[in-house]
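User: Structure with CA2, tokens only please.
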Amino acid sequence: MTCRIAILNGPNLNLLGTREPHIYGLTTLAEIEIMCRSRAEALGAALTFRQSNHEGVLVDWIQEVREDADVLIINPAAYSFRSVALIDAMKALGKPIIELHVSNIHARDELHRHSITSTAATAVICGLGPYGYVAAIEAAVHLAGGRR
Ligand code: CA2
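Assistant:
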């Protein structure tokens, strides 16, 4: 059976590659999606890739993963540091979750350092830049038990 991976991106990640390149690089989210689709296809995995600036929309999409995917990869962006709603949705999922950050949040300022959503994640990847998404897809296939 095909491994189904859902990638969700939180607020302002639609701006990747357009602002603050010293922190987030020059790669756009559309380019990251192309990289992800290429890697998922090579691994025989099915992929959905979405971004929202709205907390409730992200909660709805996490709930959809219960039916539609085997593993969730999520970059909660700023919601990492304050969203109990996302934590609750992630804890209720009952499937492997990889939290992902483009930057190394542990080396960031106080405001961007302490992810609370990572308490509900199976694993966390950060600081690898856009390649982190590709690494997360490989890890997701591993967590789902390989090509199924
Ligand atoms: O490194 C990451 O992936 C982050 O999740 C990105 C979040 C930040 O709040 C986290 O600490 C780490 C911010 C995403 C906003 O992205 C922008 C991109 C370009 C310009 C402005 C914001």
